[in-house]
Amino acid sequence: PDTGRIILGGIPSGRSRAYREQIGFVPQEIALSPRLSVQQNMDFWASMRGLSGKTRKAAVSEAVELTNIGSFLDKRISHCSGGMIRRANLAAGLVGSPSLILLDEPTAGIDEENRDSILHAVKNLQKEGRMVVMVNHYRAELDLVCNRIITLQDGQLAPLGQYAPTEA
Asked: Is residue 38 packed enough to be buried (19+ CB in 10 Å), middle (13-18) or exposed (0-12)?
């Protein structure tokens, strides 16, 4: 921040591991290795969060359950459909039960069934009390899962609740 402080879960921002552990990030670009299975990717991301043993297994199981990817854990990412990959990408960002989840276009380019599955998972995260910040170009999807929408227009914040598309 230019001024002030950011505090998440009572921990001030900065380079502290405790602060970063509270944040889950799901990038638009897939952050999974195509050569590994879904399970191996989940284990990798759990280990990157510093989890091991029973704690890692429990964290992966929770993320798998939240995103409903249990039926294809043994499948290599390179053999998964686009929707399966998006759901696994979401699961990887949820490993470790972060209290703040940042989602960048989590439903980009997938079929309706997988899109609905991801949006359902996002709603469940909110019900659990987790804060979700989602970037998305599809207003209908935002309306389904968000309780507050902030719109950027021409690089500026649009007035709350207003959106007037500019003419090309």
From this structure: buried
Residue with tokens 């964290």: 59
Helix (H) or strand (E) holding 100: strand 100-104
108-123 in b/e form (b: 16+ CB < 10 A) is eebeeebbebbbebbe
CA atoms of 100 and 66, how far apart (whole Å): 15
Question: Rounded CA gap, 60 and 58, in Å?
Answer: 5
Instruction: For residue 12, give the DSSP letter.
Output: E
Q: Token match 């998006």: residue?
A: 86
Q: Indicate the SS3 state at residue 11.
A: strand
CA distance 166 to 100: 32
Residues in the chain: 168
Q: Give Dmax (Cα) for the chain.
A: 55
Q: How far apart are CA 135 and CA 102, in angstroms?
A: 8
pLDDT confidence tier of residue 1, bands split at 50, 70 and 90: low
Q: Which two tokens stand for residue 76?
A: 């290599």
Query: Tens of pLDDT along 92-128?
Result: 999 999 999 999 999 998 899 999 999 999 999 999 9
